[in-house]
Amino acid sequence: MSETSTKPYLIRALHEWCTDNGYTPFLTVTVDARTVVPREHIKDGEIVLNVGSLATYKLELGNEFVEFQARFGGVARQISVPIDAITAIYARETGQGMAFEATPMADESDTPARDAAPVASVPDSSDAVGGKRFGLAAVPSSESTGVAETPPDPDGPETPPPSPPERGRPQLKVIK
Fold first, then answer.
1. Which neighbouring-strand residues pair with 115?
2. What are phi and psi of 48, to 5 degrees?
3. How many CB atoms lie within 10 A of CB 144?
4. What are the tens digits of pLDDT across the range 106-115?
5. Contact call for residues 39 and 118 (beta carbons, < 8 A)
6. The CATH classification of domain 7-139, taken from the options 3.40.50.150, 2.30.40.10, 2.30.30.220, 2.30.290.10
7. Residue 99: beta bridge partners?
């Protein structure tokens, strides 16, 4: 029996740390044939996903895949990201997190490239489900900050969102 990778456990731990501290957890993903995301949000072979509780529905941080439902441009989509394609998890507000090496896929010819399919069961961002609101899950890269803004809530935000730090790529700190 082979040993289980520590990567999915570290991703879950950092996701929980972000949530407990009021930060927004983001995943950076290298897109391959097994990655199910809206192709229009991919930039340079990568996509940055907001995996916070306000942006996702039915989030599952499994040992093999991160899966959830989210809205992209108002269209509900099912997202599926292989754990080995995740290259970083970090807090949007501070840039603190962890970077990983992308593990190359064993055989891309077995799995055809797929776009994220629409999902009818994701609540609209104006609907409250369990007292939580849902927003955009994919975050296209911004040239100036490396982090794109989440679209404004049509009902108006309760508190203004924090401004992202002015810098290029997130600065990830090594956790010892």
1. 37
2. -110, 125
3. 9
4. 544 444 444 5
5. no
6. 2.30.30.220
7. 88
